[in-house]
């Protein structure tokens, strides 16, 4: 999905909500555990109940990898289901935080983007910047695909290295600045945590036009209003993720219905934000 | 495998060689492609031919993930084969470069260390430091397991961010310094590229006693002598990886035999280094 299509999708759905599929078998409704593939069944129900409210889904790879090859099958079924059932209707993000030397990142890119090889075809993948240009560029060799580079993350440990350096020249600013030589706002986004809302002002000085993937609204304490105040652009420029608050809204038979209610709360708030801004 | 066992293994085998299983189906001998699981058959042959010369194996996850769930099965078979066939005889490294917020790193740790859950039981996992303490610590909650934190990598892009900062206070130095509060030399190692051999002097000032995983000898141009000159400690303190030079030594039926020859060249050189130093 290219930038124009993404923007069109956002304004058509009046939403910039991404739902994080951090699907944990110890947290999903217990009645699903008797299914052959509980993680997939859970994801399918969540997706079916929210696809008109969310513009993106973001499976978090760790939650599948902890079940090994079987988990990768659940993941593969999930991305295939989205692509086959809602073609052109959802942006898909492989939240995998990959990055390695060039020949290795090339293989990770195949895993995320090359369906004949891996069975998976995501629109975007999250990438860690520590290893620099040649660890990032192989992901950019797929036309129409995106990387979402970690800049300023939503966790406590973000302070350990991302703020390393001097005032106005910290590591995350260097990552934002330097990485713009590797791609454009047509194929690169950045992760900026919602609990760093006031930092979005600093981020927007460096990347005024790039889309930002903003995790941390909800369970991690970030405020959607604050994020929009500092991060919204004329093209929206934001994809705001919520995971636990939506997918675990209820542990019972009504889990999908309750997930829809939570997603709708955010979508309604986003609709207002988009209307007020335009 | 704990530190004492690792050191004992190194001096018993007179080797600090790690063989990187970057198993690429387009590079392995073509006659293997008719097997049900070519990647596993290749790995098994390489391991059988080199297990007395190498102290560690390091499957590179990207080369399996590019084949999706099927690739994860090859990976799982490989680690199981090593653990079942050579118990206590090899140190195993999940070269996966993972790292995410705490609850997510916890799931990645399960993938690498919790065999009942994922089917895999590695001794160590490579971890990217960008997201800081809480992205790293969950991996350290498994007794007897190790993390290998990226410090100074072997690729060109290492220069982009790892040297960010001021002289004597660059990002990789900050990573080395700060991360020592999170674990000890009993459960943490660092990646330092072989082509950064002279930098090992700087690294050793900060982490005199930690093991270093050193990739980049061979295909990436690093010199074993240089690495040993600057990085060796009384406990050895080094695990030197070679991948392509060994596993692709021959494209023919004799691939395992030729891999053994290449591994033996390095082991003999390592034996001399260990003798000269002790």
In short:
Two copies of one chain form a homodimer. Chain A is α/β, with parallel strands linked by helices.
How does this structure look, described?
Chain A is 44% helix and 17% strand. Chain A contains 13 helices and 10 strands. The two termini of chain A are 23 Å apart. The first copy, chain A, has a single domain, classed as Aldolase class I (TIM Barrel). In chain A, the strands form 2 sheets. In chain A, strands 1-2-3-4-5-8-9-10 form an 8-stranded parallel barrel, surrounded by 5 helices. In chain A, strand 9, helix 11 and strand 10 form a beta-alpha-beta unit. Chain A has 278 residues and is an alpha/beta fold. The model of chain A has no long low-confidence stretch (mean pLDDT 96). The radius of gyration of chain A is 18 Å and the shape is globular. The relative contact order of chain A is 0.15.
Number of helices of chain A: 13
Beta strands of chain A, count: 10
**Mean pLDDT figure of chain A:** 96
Shape of chain A: globular
- Specify the CATH homologous superfamily of chain A: Aldolase class I
Radius of gyration of chain A: 18 Å
The CATH top-level class label of chain A:
Alpha Beta
Query: Strand fraction band of chain A?
Result: 15-25%
Question: Structurally, how many domains make up the residues of chain A?
Answer: 1
- CATH-assigned fold name of chain A: TIM Barrel
Largest sheet of chain A: 8 strands, parallel, barrel
Largest sheet of chain A, order of strands side by side? 1-2-3-4-5-8-9-10
CATH architecture of chain A: Alpha-Beta Barrel
Low-confidence region ranges of chain A: none
Oligomer status: homodimer
**Fraction of residues in H or I helices of chain A:** 40-55%
């Amino acid at each position: 999905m290219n930038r124009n299509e993404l923007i069109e999708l956002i304004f058509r759905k009046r939403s910039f909500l991404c739902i994080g599929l951090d699907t944990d078998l110890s947290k999903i409704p217990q009645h699903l555990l008797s299914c052959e593939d509980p993680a997939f069944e859970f994801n399918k129900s969540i997706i079916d109940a929210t696809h008109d409210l969310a513009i993106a889904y973001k499976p978090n790879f760790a939650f599948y990898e902890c079940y090994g090859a079987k988990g990768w099958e659940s993941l593969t079924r999930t991305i295939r289901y989205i692509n086959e059932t809602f073609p052109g209707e959802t942006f898909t993000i492989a939240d995998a935080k990959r990055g390695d030397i060039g020949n290795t990142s090339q293989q990770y890119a195949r895993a995320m983007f090359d369906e004949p090889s891996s069975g998976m075809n995501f629109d975007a993948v999250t990438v860690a910047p520590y290893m620099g240009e040649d660890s990032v560029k192989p992901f950019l060799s797929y036309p129409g695909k995106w990387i979402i580079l970690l800049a300023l993350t939503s966790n406590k440990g973000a302070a350990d290295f991302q703020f390393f350096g001097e005032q106005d020249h910290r590591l995350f600013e260097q990552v934002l600045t330097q990485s713009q030589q590797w791609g454009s706002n047509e194929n690169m986004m950045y992760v900026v945590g919602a609990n760093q809302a006031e930092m979005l002002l600093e981020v927007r000085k460096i990347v005024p036009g790039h889309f930002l993937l903003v995790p941390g609204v909800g369970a991690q304490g970030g405020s959607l209003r604050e994020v929009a105040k500092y991060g919204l652009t004329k093209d929206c420029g934001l994809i705001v993720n919520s995971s636990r608050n939506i997918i675990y809204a209820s542990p019972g038979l009504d889990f999908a219905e309750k997930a829809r209610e939570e997603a709708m709360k955010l979508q309604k708030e986003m609709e207002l934000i988009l209307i007020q801004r335009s």
